[in-house]
Amino acid sequence: MKRRTWLLTAAGASGALIVGWGALPPRARTGSGRLWQPAEGEVALNGWIKITTDGSVVLAMPRSEMGQGVHTALPMLVAEELDVPLSRVHLEQAGADSIYGNVAMLVGSLPFHPFELENRPFKVQAGEWVVRKLARELGINATGGSSSVADAWLVLRTAAATARASLLGAASLQWRLPVAEFTVSKGVISHPSGKSAHYGELARFAAATPPGSVTLKARENWTIIGRNAARKDIPAKVDGTARFGLDVRLPGMLYAALRLCPMLGGAPGAIDVNAALAMPGVERLVRLPPFAGSTAGFAVVGKSWWQCQQAAQAVPVDWHQRPAGALDSRQIAIELEAALQGKNGEEGFTFYEKGSADQAEAGAARKLEAVYRAPYLAHAALEPMNCTAQVKGGKVFLWVPTQVPQMGAAIAARVAGVAVEDVSVIVTLLGGGFGRRLEVDYVAQAVRVAMECGGRPVQLIWSREEDTTHDFYRPMHVARLVAAVDAQGQPVSLRIRSAGDAISPRWMERGLPMLAGPVDTPDKTTAEGLFDLPYGFAHQHMSHVATRKSVPVGFWRSVGHSHNAFFSESFIDELAVALQQDPLAMRRFLLKDAPRYLAVLELAATQAAWGGKLPPGRARGIALHESFGSIVAQVAEVSLVNGQPRVHRVVCAMDCGTVVNPGIVAQQMESAVVFALTAALYGKVDIHAGVVQQKNFSDYRMLQLAQVPLVQTHLVASTRPPGGVGEPGVPPLAPAVSNALFALTGTRLRSLPLVL
């Protein structure tokens, strides 16, 4: 679809929405206390905040904890506005009301250039307004897109400040004293006359007291936000009381092991059921159709998972290849190269255009061109996919590590044939998400199995092999980059054309049943990190050819940025080398009109002592990238050990807006470096004859502890609202390492992984 056609279509749709919604105020997100049932000794002041009789605070938690620290960062916002110790803020899983939906994640999906977001022309304001309205109506509760803190930033502080205002108002009415004379400390309201009461003593009266004027605490008065605070989830994870999906234990629980068709998109034919039933501990075998984009297969149910797993592997099965023929990653790579060159007539969608790249290239004194490639990648979360389900009395109960509890409830209702209101979801801790748990295939499978178990709960667990060979993979992508240089030796034009599968349309088709057919709208994730570069090329043209190769693809930590940053930042280094410039100096030149980006770059370079002396046999590489509202620059120090790359140190500089907890930010940068370095060095999924070749950590390699580099994180002070943290540290790592390897060896690596 051409850019103009798409924009006109979007404008028409927006116009219809504006007509329908123009007179309506935005849906309030503070909510009423009626949204959740207070337990004995609790009073709900709004949809987010309850107060207990001892003055503690209960926060409705709509986001999943998967190691990113959201169960600490969000309570910090509440503790700050309520002036209570963080230790006295407790969590309770939020319900399904729309106030808990993730508005920021949907707004972040709009394909605007960062400079447009900075200058905020009408199209940006209108686009964000429409999407915010839509997001508030839909109320999709999802944890992803590094959006949890950004989404909660105003709503949680406002909810807490509203609760505080009601509590102060209650004290004022009871004591007949002006609010302005009160002080609040550690959840206790005091007056110079000697009167005082903690929140628990005022809560019931406060619930009936209008909050009056609500004002957020001034930045200069913060005592919690911006300071290190111990993570609330760590003690339970240390002493073993933390409950992940695999830790769920229920009376009479059965277990189920999964075996899916080895060929992606294939299906089982004849199955020797009797062979399975004859094995110890086995009670039944359940066929599984291709739920929510998964491949068909079956599950063996019994008394222990190990017995079921042994039986599932031993069952003779007649596997059938998918009707359209076997998938092969080598052939897909060839087809993507053809799409990149436009050999099949694909025009592609232009995400961003500035000036005239055609004219600049026609008049160029010199052109530099390169093609970059990235493979399929698996998520490889430490905790494999699992879900515990019980279908009983027309109700469905789920205990599941998921990033999308509402979507899990929706597919459970469809599979079991019940109303979604009859599905109860308890979200456990997640042993890694990385986007894989934005899918609900494993939820549907667990419910289907539970339907055959006579009301007993059943815990479905994927083996590591099934988890690796039946993932929703990061797509294979390729990109062609062309730079034009004028007669004065200055870069004046940058053209990027990429090709690969789009993720968002496939995900929507799988998880949103209200869609009645294919979704093929332009997908920002295909071109993010290419169309939105901050570099000051006078002429730019950024387009993407969206393909559909039938390999199941899904969101992978930092999504399109994860490979597109490798393409763009490696090419910027190539341009610097071609023009005989230092890579840092080249970026400085191209960022002269982008001071925020330049500040991050300079901080990383200074802290890494760019240009300083290194031990013999080492080299530095640098990369800069923005994603999810945050800017990250990384400098990697690399050597070769027995011919293999060894990364010794990674210096990270980050501008993520206002920092809620600096310690968590540093932890997430360390996590991102390890995650990204694993993928950069080793990550690759090969598909031959429809079968994924990598099966476990023995052939899908992980970074070993001894290979983990020193990671040093430096944060830019900012008063902007918070940006993302969990994902932005991933994209710059691969190009920083690749650029260092070029400086070390003189060989430019244009394909991932870097180690073959």
The total tally of domains equals 3
Q: Helix/strand/pairing class, anyone?
A: alpha+beta
Q: Sheet with the most strands?
A: 7 strands, mixed
- Beta content comes to 15-25%
- Count of DSSP E strands? 27
Rounded to the nearest angstrom, the distance between the terminal CA atoms is 37 Å
**CATH fourth-tier homologous superfamily of the largest domain:** Aldehyde oxidase/xanthine dehydrogenase, molybdopterin binding domain
Mean pLDDT: 94
For the record, the CATH class of the largest domain is Alpha Beta
Distinctive features:
single chain; 756 residues; Aldehyde Oxidoreductase, domain 4; 3 domains; alpha+beta; seven-stranded mixed β-sheet; globular
Task: Write a structural description.
With 756 residues, the chain is of the alpha+beta class. It is built from 22 helices and 27 strands. It has a 7-stranded mixed beta sheet. A 5-stranded mixed beta sheet has the order 13-21-20-19-14. A 4-stranded mixed beta sheet has the order 1-2-3-4. The chain has 3 domains: 171 residues, 2-Layer Sandwich (Aldehyde Oxidoreductase, domain 4), CATH 3.30.365.10; 156 residues, Aldehyde oxidase/xanthine dehydrogenase, molybdopterin binding domain (Aldehyde Oxidoreductase, domain 4); 321 residues, Aldehyde oxidase/xanthine dehydrogenase, molybdopterin binding domain (Aldehyde Oxidoreductase, domain 4). Strand 23 and strand 24 form a beta hairpin.
